Structure formats: structure tokens, C-alpha cells
Amino acid sequence: MSLSTVDTIIEKLNGYKPLITISGIGDPLLHPQLAKIIDKFKSADHNIGVVLNIASIIDCKEEIFLEMIRKNPDHITISVPSINPLVIQKIYNGKITERQIIDRLFWIKETSAGRITIRISSLTTGNRDYDENGLKELAQRLKMQLWLSPIHSRGGNLGESELYKQKGIQQNTSCSLFVFHTFIDCRGKILACCHDLKGDTEFADISDGIEEILLRKQVLLERVPPFILCNRCDEPLRFLRLPNNLERLTYRQLFKKLRAYTGRTENR
User: Fold this and answer.
1) What is the architecture of the domain spanning 3-168+243-262?
2) How far from chain centre, in Å, is Cα 218?
3) Where are the alpha helices (DSSP H) in the chain?
4) Taking phi first (over 0 means left), then psi (-120 to 50 degrees means alpha), and beta for anything else, what does residue 224 get?
5) What is the pLDDT of residues 91-134, one digit of tens each?
6) What residues does each domain of the chain span?
7) What is the pTM of this model?
8) What CA–CA distance (Å, rounded) separates 173 from 224?
């Protein structure tokens, strides 16, 4: 995403205060202007967070991560698939070890010095041999929030493996995730969510303005399903029963309501 696209997003968000997260299709730490992007959103008084994979944090130069930390994003979510050696071997094929992951998480805690909310996001497979990995205990030691969710196919893009088995997907249903979540890609195009890797759900451009985007979204929400891709999606958030007073909830309140899904620990 270019800085000019970021400027357009900030301009169009004038008067709105969404929870903004840099994530999705790609690795934020590879963006040469990540720190500048965070700084722009912070300067515009937006709540800005970043989602990072633990492998990219291990692989990148420490100064790149530290430069991002110095911009004080409001929250960082670290995707840690497991600290179970069996799972780590299957995912990373010996390139990353359990010890590297644990050491890097403690380093992140030290470098953030309590200034930034750090969360760990991980998956459950339904296989006890894989899921019993000590991650809950590690999160408690680190005093980090832990969000757990069942592994899913990311809109049908992930095939079957030892870690993921395809489930029966409920057809022609609405999407709770689409109600409170909107994805802006690197070009400023508006997609249903980050599970869309090909742009099949594009329905607007940030230059259209928030009011127009919300109107189009309202029309799409009346369709069942909103997009064909939805019939391939087994994302758990999609099937959540949303609170009746959703529009009056702060993001902190909303995510507390979603706690049954996230499996968040009591750590703050």
C-alpha cells in the first residue's frame, strides 16, 4: 500500500473512528514504510494495530521491528500457530524451532515495555496431540492475551492436511463477520474480508467515500450469502450470534462479547 493510498483512507475516514488493523494478504514487516504508515494513522488519532506472524518476526532484522515499536501502535497481534514441536516441524520444516518462538516472544515483551497491548493469536485443530502445546501457560507467564480459534480453510483456499480436515460448510447463510469487518486491500479496493485472495468480493473503492461503501454493504448484507465465496467459508466468526446493540458497543466491549470465540485468557 502506498502512502498516498493511506492518505486517502485517512481523508475518507474523517469523522469515523474504526479499529484499524494492518494485516491480511502479505507480511507487514516487508513493507519498507510500515513505520510511516503507523505514524500517519496515529497522527490522525486513529486506533491502529498490526497483525504479524511469529516467523516473520524471527526472520526480519531486529531494527525493523524496533522501528515499528517506536511508533507505538495501539496493539500488536502475533500469530503463533503452536509451540508444540510436532506442529512446528510440520509447518516450518525445521526452519524455526520451539525455542526460537518462545525466546522471540519474551524479547517482544521486553522491547514493548508494557507500552503496547500484545496479543497472541493461535489455532486449535481438534487433535489433542497437536493442541496440547503449553501455549496457554506461556501466555500467562508473558501476561499476554491469548486468542484461540478453530483452524479453518480461509474461504476454501486451504486444502486438507494433517492439521486441517475439511468440514461440512453450511450453505446460503449470512455472515456475521462482514457485519462489523471491512477489508481494504493495498490498492484501496474494498473487499468482504481477507479470505478473498483473488478480489472476487470487491464491491467499492475507498475513494467512493464511507457513506457510499456502507450503503453498498447494507445491500450486500441483505443477500444470502453476500458472496459466492461465502459458501466455501468455514470461518467460525461468520456464524456468531451478534449482540442486539452492536452499533452502540465500543470495540473493547465487542471483543469481550466475542470472548467465547477467542478463548482469550484473563490476562490484560
Assistant:
1) Alpha-Beta Barrel (3.20)
2) 23
3) 3-12, 34-43, 54-59, 62-70, 85-92, 98-112, 128-131, 135-142, 176-180, 210-221, 251-257, 259-262
4) beta
5) 888 899 999 999 999 999 999 878 899 999 998 887 777 776 78
6) 3-168+243-262
7) 0.85
8) 5
